[in-house]
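Sat 14:20. Reprocessing the chain from the morning session after the first attempt stalled halfway. Input below, unchanged.
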Amino acid sequence: MKEILELSREIQNEIFEYDIKNAFENINSLINSLSNALTSIPQEYAVNMNEIFNYMNISLENKDYLIYSDILKYELEPLIHKIEVCK
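Finished this time. Tokens:
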């Protein structure tokens, strides 16, 4: 989960620096890490994570990178912290 948080913060920084190329590389890594994590988290959190995935996809489809960054910071990161507390 630590890797997910680090990737999230790195992506946010890259978005604010408008380094979209590197942000997309890290987004791919983040999605892979999140997909792997889905198999080992409680069902209630998996449902929440899937909703967050949906919001992330919508923001990318709309090329709204600031919203994507906000989703990472205000939706994904708090969920990851909750999951860590439960372990």
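The two ends are 11 Å apart (CA to CA).
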